[in-house]
Amino acid sequence: MGKKIVVITGSPRKNGNSFAMTDAFIKAAEEKGHTIIRFDAAMKKLGGCRACETCYSTGKACSFDDDFNTLAPAILEADAIVFTMPVYWYSIPAQIKSVIDRIFSLVVGGKDISGKECALITCCEEDDMTVMDGVRIPIERTAALNKWKMVGEVLVPSVLNAGDIEKTDGCQKAAALADLF
Q1: pLDDT per residue over 84-131, tens digit each?
Q2: SS3 sequence, the chain?
Q3: Contacts of 172 (CB under 8 A, 6+ apart)
Q4: CA of residue 116 relative to chain centroid, distance
Q5: Surface-to-core class of residue 151, CB atoms within 10 Å of its CB (0-12 exposed, 13-18 middle, 19+ buried)
Q6: Could you say which of 4, 75, 76, 174 is the most buried, measured as most Cβ atoms within 10 Å of its Cβ?
Q7: Does pTM top 0.90 for this prediction?
């Protein structure tokens, strides 16, 4: 039985390395019968959480209406969430960080988001695997806080320029990640 998987990307570079891995994951997941909703955060109008705690007071997840409100219902309905992004300055890109922060609205709004599966696909320029800790650890902690099960991570070092991912097994690992759902 296929699952509903929301894939949230954080790169503004459509021909970049994390997008290539995202595409490989999505193709493999769809071949396995999963339904994918893709949300390219960098191509959306998103603001950060304002900590106003007026979530759902307007009937939408966030009182400040932007593209997060189109994503929130998909997250609620999803069986799994996959975050994909490059490492930016040893951390999560701002384009996706606003989405992660605003998941808070679902919790404050009294929505039960526990029990979902979660995975991470990320890459970085440097060859030191610890460089990805600035992405990996916050995603793992987000999963733990929300009572999501981390089912897998694809962590690929040593890619910078578009196309560098083809010199690695990153796309194959991303496709194989679909087997874990």
Answers
A1: 999 999 999 998 999 999 999 999 999 999 999 999 999 999 999 999
A2: CCCEEEEEECCCCCCCHHHHHHHHHHHHHHHCCCEEEEEEHHHCCCCCCCCCCCCCCCCCCCCCCCCHHHHHHHHHHCCEEEEEEECECCECCHHHHHHHHHCHHHHHCCCCCCCCEEEEEEECCCCCHHHHHHHHHHHHHHHHHCCCEEEEEEEECCCCCCCHHHHCCHHHHHHHHHHHC
A3: 24
A4: 13
A5: middle
A6: 174
A7: yes
Distance CA 54, CA 37 (A): 27
Give dist(CA 132, CA 121) in Å, integer: 10
With 0-12 / 13-18 / 19 or more C-beta atoms within 10 angstroms meaning exposed / middle / buried, residue 130 is: exposed
Q: 84 φ, ψ to 5°?
A: -130, 135
Its sign, for the CA torsion 155, 6, 88, 24, is: positive
